[in-house]
Design brief:
The protein is mostly helical. The chain is built from 16 helices and no strands.
Length: 274
Amino acid sequence: MDLISVEDINQRIEVLEASHAVATRLLALVERDDVGAREVATVLSADPVLVQRIMRMANSAYYGTGGRVRELHAAIAILGFDAVKSLALTSFVEGTGTITPQDWEHSITSAVGAAEVARMIGADQQQAFSLALLHDIGEAVIASLDSTFHELLTNRRAVPLTADGELTMLAVERKRYGLHHAAIGADMLESWNFHPDLVQAVAQHHTPKGSLSRTHAALVDGDRIAHLITCGLSIDQIRETPMVLLPHYVDDARLAGVMANVQARSAAMIADLF
Ligand SMILES: [Fe+2]
Ligand SMILES: [Fe+2]
């Protein structure tokens, strides 16, 4: 297949936004500093699927609201604008039919993992959660251009992330498509005016360089925890895997406990959402 250029990505984003009036209006709105949850709610109310998702997420056990959130503006205030923006962007890409239940599972498990690591290292939990929700959005874009890509993803998620596996994965994508999913995702976030630090975190979620911002570190660890959970190996098998990538900020003694906690909380959120 043809290589994907940055222009192709931008064109795809433009097409998605143009077909989604809510996306365009939301984007213009959240750029303002003085915007409130009620104004965002008014714009989003034109998209029933997105509204349902936001309501379900705010009412999920994860947020401890006891299922009592009834109004959209209250749900937006609970999740925060970053998470609403992440859900909106995912929802627009989802319109291409390329986000599978397994992709959602990976996004949500990474998000719950990133928020947990953010809590442990004193980073912004809401920001880490929102960013991790979106970190692999580039994969959905590739899948919309290549129907065989999901097979590759399924194989990839059946094993834990390893240092050489990660580099091979990016090299394969770059060779096949011209850009890898992290670069595509970063380009999308940039066009959606996410903060440059968050764009960089997505661009380098597999290849972190230098000293990382705390949100970036939480994202990388959340992704690694999600891969460890999904691969289905025991802790002993994980430890025996050569070059396995373990989270930076979860020490060995706590790893099994953190994985069990993230798995239980993300499974509950997935059950509440779908
Ligand atoms: Fe990734
Ligand atoms: Fe990932």
